[in-house]
Every structure is written in structure tokens, then in C-alpha cells.
Amino acid sequence: MRQSRAMASVRKPAIVRKFSRDWCAGYAPVGFARDAAALEILDLTGKVVSIGWEQVKWVCYVRDFPPPSPVAEAFQANPERLLHKRFAIRPRVPGLWLRMILADGDELEGLAANDRSLIEGAGLLVTPPDTRSNTQRIYLPRQAIQALEVVSLIGASGRKRTACPDRIAEQPELFPGALETP
After folding, report:
1. Domain boundaries of the chain, sorted by first residue
2. Per-residue pLDDT tens for 110-152?
3. In 90-173, at which residue ranges do the beta strands (DSSP E only) sit?
4. Total-model pTM
5. How do beta strands 11-18 and 23-29 pair?
6. What span, in angstroms and rounded, lies between the C-alpha atoms of 145 and 29?
7. Burial level of 119, CB count in 10 A (0-12/13-18/19+)?
């Protein structure tokens, strides 16, 4: 029973978008090794597909896959259903609000965790602007990012700042003679 729980979290449903605008659906690993030469996904037919990182634009972890019917042409053009690539208003979820320009010129915003994965990982895992869409998380390999801008830090740590005891002093009055008038 323990093995089945571990296997459930190893791969998640994902759609891999390439720079050639081609895409493939399958099950991608949750974490990626920094020195891995290629992305290996398990496609819907059960085959392991290897895609070079230089071809990968992003890996979208999705809720469900697009239907295979010809009626769903809209899903075939945009299987990630990523309609909003920018935040309309300031996000409320804590994290770093990032704006990225990808190698093909696409612009994407997302929220990333404020931790060491920003500088040490093989790529960035961000939450997209529209959390109600099919895409829950987006993994961007470092090779795909041309420019990165930190827009804002949302919800800094809940740690309270304490004033230095040297600086604690009685607050001076702004209008010292105002209260003494009869």
C-alpha cells in the first residue's frame, strides 16, 4: 500500500508546449534534475517520450487532458486553456510576482515561491494568473527564459519587526503649543 501512494505522486498530468507550437500530453515528473539532458514524459499511449530541454517552452501541469474528438478544435489549439498570461489585479497569494519574456517573445506572468529554487533549480515553477483555468502550475526551464523581472513581493513573512532599543524614544510632539491654549 505504501508503494502505491508513492507512485501516485511521481508523475502528474501535463501538457508540454514546444517552441515549434507543437505540444504533447502525458504524465511528467514533479521535480526535474538540473543536469538532465532531456525531459521524459509518459504519453497517453504508455510510451516514454524524450524531448530535449532546448525545444521545451513550458510544462503545464493540468487538471485534465483535452478531449480527442474533432469537435474540440479550440482545445487542440490551446490545450492548456491558458487564456490569461498576465495578472489583471495584484495577486493575493503570497510569493514573488514575476514577469518573464520567453525565448520566442511570449510574455508570461506568474507567482513563484520565495525560496532558493529561484537561483538553484533547473527552472521555475510558477502559478499562472488564472487559477480557475485548466493549468494549475507552469514549469519553465531556464533555457526558455530570455528575461525575468520581479514585479513585487506579495505577502512578506509574518515575522514582526522589533525596533532596536536604542531607537525607542518618546515621540516628539508635532505642535507643542497647540494643547496649551485656553
Report:
1. 2-154
2. 999 988 888 887 899 999 998 788 899 999 999 999 999 999 9
3. 95-102, 107-112, 123-127, 135-141, 145-154
4. 0.76
5. antiparallel
6. 20
7. exposed
